[in-house]
Amino acid sequence: MIRIGIVGIGFMGRIHYLAAQHLKGAQVAAVCSRDPKKLAGDWSSTRGNFGPPPGQVDLSGIKRYSSLDAMLKDAEIDLIDVCNPTLQHAATAIAALKAGKHVLVEKAISLQPEAADRMLVAAKAAGKLLMVAHVLPFFPEFAFAAATVRAGKLGKLLGGHFKRVISKPDWSAEIADVSATGGPAVDLHIHDTHFIGLLCGVPTHVFSSGVVEGAAVTYLTTNYLYGPGGPAVSCSSGAVAMKARPFVHGYEIYLEKATLVYESGVTPLTVLHADGHSEQPRLSGGDPIEAFSAEIQAAVDGVQSCRAPDLLSGNLARDALVMCLMECESVRSGKPVAMS
Fold first, then answer.
1. The CATH number of the domain where 189 resides is what?
2. Residue 200 and residue 256 in one domain
3. Residues 240 and 253 in one domain
4. Closest by alpha carbon to 145, among 230, 302, 260, 316?
5. Engineered SS bond to 205: which of 225, 233, 251, 287, CB 3.0-4.6 Å?
6. What is the pTM of this model?
7. Is the Cβ–Cβ distance between 232 and 252 less than 8 Å?
8. What's the burial of 49, exposed, middle or buried (CB within 10 Å: 0-12/13-18/19+)?
9. pLDDT confidence bin for 206, thresholds 50/70/90
């Protein structure tokens, strides 16, 4: 049995806790928070944009720690699930790795590539897994797209366009705070850069235009440049829509033998074939918490096998962060920016 310790009981910590109730071969053994109300089970302040309404949680039988150091000294905990603010991800993950724990850290891996590099080095030195919780590939529509493209059965990836747009959230003031989350061009858009990296690899350059509000890039459209023969890929993402349309994500993916189309709330996943017929694949799941359960289950399976799943790769997560930052640079400069 893999025993999990969750660090940080905000919205995402609550979602990970709920998702973990459906795991096989693992259970939440401890939680860590500096808030005594949360340690007492009052999670009413952990509101987010999906999931059941927050409230009281029964933590009987679960260890409760007010400090990270105390949790890391608990020899019974195998996997530390880092759900505290992004600004704290690197320090928390590195401390856990040095304490001999495997780590699953919520996206984004960090706010600076240098911090992500320190995390990767710490994992290698400790001989432990550093996994980054990018949940998008575990949503059924995106899991189908990833499996289809990577299998190659419908031909080579020619190109595609991805979309992720929200209204300015009233449940998270920090999303616009570059120092805390990186702003929408990191905190939100990194879902897309991670998925694009998974399908296509890292581009040679990115070329972006966008909207800048204060220090934050709040909306952008990017062309990912892969050079001659590479796929023609673009994405639009940000916090720009009016509240009547609070969230939408989706894609059109162009393969040699088919086109994959999906837009949440508008167009169910549809496969358009070369002969003119279309089909809507039967998908399992659909509840966002089920995707998080699948994500955390993959991390648990990784601990059991001592091998990190490629969907939770720390290197892929680091590349996704760098893509976001280079796109922000391109927005501000108005020029293509080379990926470093």
1. 3.30.360.10
2. yes
3. yes
4. 260
5. 225
6. 0.96
7. no
8. middle
9. very high
What tens digit of pLDDT does each residue of 27-66 get?
Answer: 999 999 999 999 999 999 998 888 899 999 999 999 999 9
Q: Provide the pLDDT confidence category of residue 174 given band limits of 50, 70 and 90.
A: low
Distance CA 157, CA 289 (A): 30
> How far is 316 from 193, CA to CA, in rounded Å?
10
Element spanning 117, H or E: helix 113-126
In this structure, the answer to whether residues 188 and 332 fall within a common structural domain is yes
pLDDT mean over 247-254:
96
Beta carbons within 8 Å of 73's beta carbon, 6+ residues apart:
99
207 in the same domain as 96 = no
- My answer on whether 307 and 334 are in the same domain is no
Residue ranges making up the domain that contains 30: 2-133+291-311
Do 150 and 18 lie in one domain? The reply is: no
User: In terms of C-beta density within 10 A (0-12 exposed, 13-18 middle, 19 or more buried), how is residue 87 classed?
Assistant: middle
CA 113 from centre of chain: 16
pLDDT in tens, 61-73: 999 999 999 999 9
pLDDT tens for each residue of 84-128? 999 999 999 999 999 999 999 999 999 999 999 999 999 999 999
Same domain membership, residue 148 and residue 221: yes
Same domain, 216 and 112: no
Could you write out the DSSP letters of every residue in 236-278?
EEEEEE-TTS-EEEEEEEEESSEEEEEETTTEEEEEEETTS-E
